[in-house]
Amino acid sequence: MAKEKKLNVGIIGYGFMGRTHSNGYRRVCNFFDTEYEPVLKAACGRNQDQLKSFADKWGWETTETDWRRLIERKDIDAIDICTPNNMHAEIAIAAAEAGKMILCEKPLSMNAAEGERMVEVVESKGLPNMVWYNYRFVPAVTLAKQIVAEGKMGKIFHYRANFLQDWTINPELPQGGAALWRLDVNAAGSGVTGDLLAHCLDTAIWINGPIQSVTAMTETFIKERKHNLTGSIEKVGIDDACAFLARFANGSLGLFESTRYARGHKALYTFEINGENSSISWDLHDLHRMKYFDHADEGRVRGWRDIHVTDGGDHPYMGNWWVPGLQIGYEHSFVHGVYEFLKALEAGNPPVAPSFKDALNTQYVCDAVLESARTGTWKDIPFMK
To answer: Coil, helix or strand for 237?
Structure first.
């Protein structure tokens, strides 16, 4: 049944993230009861042939090759930004000035100063906003958040996380251009810190609270690469690997690591939380499971439980999917993100967590990590209330 309230979406970018978001918009009303129905009104990108293929495949009604024209359109309610990081601020600020709701890919910005301007404009306009830190919406991760928030773990002592990949080890891999902009510091802002550790940080801050200070080290293993746009050999400005220690405001200690040089790992994202009563661990490769250790268990059967997070009666989001025991996957986290955005619109209380302000707090930590690695010193973290 068609819904009375339509949310006309214009998306900018048709790569990997454009596909995940499109799937979220298309599927949300199949599985969740919402007052609003997302309408895939217009897709925007620079290459008309690729753009049309994307729009036809995913059901976008129209196309634009100039994002400014997309923002000017009266039939667009929300702008979804799926561009390289160096375009986020300009597009988001223009969209806010035009009165559009905004959903922006992570990280929010190239740096915290840029992010502050984005938050200021969006909040001054009172516009619904969200940043796509999608791992919050994995049911097992949401369950971990609930358990910590309920105090079941007692005082938290440790939070550790890593995000490991191996796709940039080849020294012949160029930097820059449509497919490899993440290796170009001018397009990405940073390497694994903003691309991978930002995910770890958003989850950590959401579950365990603000980070107060960090000390970090980074490394760029391949110092020069050919640039796809200029054709010349240029210095690599991004961090290939990063590791840092952190102190949380609740007194717990954090340990974070990310690299694109861990041979054999394509997307190993894990975290573990240790509290006085219990421990939790989670692994993206087995994302529907949460491991849980409770010291209150009888000694002879005490050990790590393997909780299959698929029970609709007890587990976040799962009541809208299949029967208990049948799992969901990565793409469903984006469906949940769209649902949370629509639910907030219905309730009249956007922005939606993670909001621009939430993402700015993550950006503060990323900036401090990079500065600490540069100076070899501990860095304190500002935090927006």
So the answer is: coil
